[in-house]
Every structure is written in structure tokens, then in C-alpha cells.
Amino acid sequence: MFYLKNYMEEAVSSKIDAVISPMNICKCEKCKMDMMAIALNHLPPRYIVTERGGLYSKLKELEFQFEVDVQTEIVKAALIVGNNNRHQDNEL
């Protein structure tokens, strides 16, 4: 079966909890989604169509620079959202 997916979404999603865990910011689902959106807007997309493409992207994820880039953008996004969260306190 063929599908089109931005593999970067999976990479950010799988790392976001570990990266923001020690930070003193809101970790509600809305804020996490805002962080993911901001981080993804600053990372290059990695679209895959086949399982082989997915395997290639997973191998690229093992590269040190890839890991650093993803974590850096998540931290930047967390700082932005942490300073400007858009939900009301009663939504927590």
C-alpha cells in the first residue's frame, strides 16, 4: 500500500515528551500540539511514500545532527509556547 507522510512528524512526536519533561512549562495536549507545529515549521520535511522510504528515514534519524536539529527546534518551540500559551487557565 502506498501512502504519503511527512516522517518528521513522527520524529518530533516521538521526542517531544522527553525533551519538554524537565522544562517548567505547560504540557497539556494543546500546548504540545502548538510546540509540534512550530518545530515542524522550522524543520525540513521528509516525505516518504513506501516502506523502504520509511526505513531510509529511520536510518537518517540515527545521525547525530538529525537528533540535535529535532531537539533544538522542540526546545525553541517549547520556549515560544511556554511564554505565549493560548489556552485559558480553566482549560488545564
Q: What integer is the average pLDDT?
A: 86
Residue runs with pLDDT of under 50 for 5 or more positions: none
Indicate the structural class. mainly alpha
| Spatial gap, N to C terminus | 40 Å
Tertiary shape: elongated
Keywords:
4 helices, mainly alpha, single chain, elongated, two-stranded antiparallel sheet, 92 residues
Layout of helices and strands:
Blueprint: E1 5-6, H1 7-20, H2 29-41, E2 47-48, H3 51-61, H4 64-83
Antiparallel strand pairs: 1-2
Helix pairs in contact: 1-2, 1-4, 2-4
Would you summarize the structure shown here?
This protein is mainly alpha-helical and 92 residues long. It has helices at 7-20, 29-41, 51-61, 64-83, and strands at 5-6, 47-48.
Report on this model:
Helices cover 63% and strands 4% of the residues. The chain contains 4 helices and 2 strands. It has helices at residues 7-20, 29-41, 51-61, 64-83; strands spanning 5-6, 47-48. The protein has a two-stranded antiparallel sheet with strand order 1-2. The longest helix has 20 residues, at 64-83. The chain is elongated and about 40 Å long.
